[in-house]
Amino acid sequence: MEKKIMIIDDDHQARETITQELYKFGYTVESIPEFTDIYSALNRFKPKLFILDINLKGADGRTLCNEIKANLSYAHIPIILLTTLSYAQIGEIDCKADAILGKPIHIQNLLRAIDGLITV
Question: Does domain 4-117 have CATH number 3.40.50.2300?
Answer without folding.
Answer: yes
